[in-house]
Design goal:
Elements: H1 3-13, E1 21-25, E2 39-50, E3 57-72, E4 75-82, E5 85-86, E6 95-96, H2 102-121, H3 147-150
Parallel strand pairs: 1-4
Antiparallel strand pairs: 2-3, 3-4, 5-6
Length: 157
């Protein structure tokens, strides 16, 4: 995954905030348990996945990303953990990272910055409808292959 692209987009989206913010990726984030003083939000987006074992590609309109955010005297930090999915045709295939388009990353991070404004700066924000570019996906949701379901945060479970 091109995390540098996420960081560049995040830097651009946060330039109007009072403090400087950075985006870090942290595989150890516990979705329901932010550290003391940290705020949490879980956002969904549309993503593609590719099985590294069999090469199967699938799309999901409910790929989840967990964000923890913290504002301190030196600025703000947002930590991200994109949640993985597992191929439904490989019995022992690994959990795979999502691949999110630049347009959907921009929408995802715009929603994150809105949450930062609300949760870290106590601003009241009017909800703006932002729509992801979704996939024409008729496949049923597979809770046994969804890390968000395993973590108890998937809206489908």
């Amino acid at each position: 995954m091109k995390y540098s692209e996420w960081e560049r987009i995040f830097e651009n989206k946060t330039k109007d905030l009072k403090d400087s913010w950075s985006l870090e990726f942290d595989e150890s984030l516990a979705p329901k348990y932010p550290n003391r003083g940290w705020k949490m939000t879980v956002r969904s987006t549309c993503a593609r996945f590719k099985c590294s074992k069999c090469g199967r590609v699938w799309a999901s309109n409910k790929a989840m990303v967990v964000f923890h955010m913290h504002l301190s005297y030196g600025g703000g930090i947002a930590k991200a953990k994109p949640l993985h999915q597992k191929c439904k045709t490989c019995d022992d295939g690994p959990m795979e990272e999502p691949s999110v388009s630049s347009a959907n990353v921009a929408i995802l991070l715009e929603n994150l910055v809105e949450q930062i404004r609300v949760k870290c700066y106590n601003e009241s924000m009017a909800k703006k409808p932002r729509h992801f570019r979704s996939f024409d996906n008729q496949s049923p949701h597979e809770p046994a292959h969804c890390e968000a379901c395993m973590q108890g945060i998937c809206p489908k479970s």
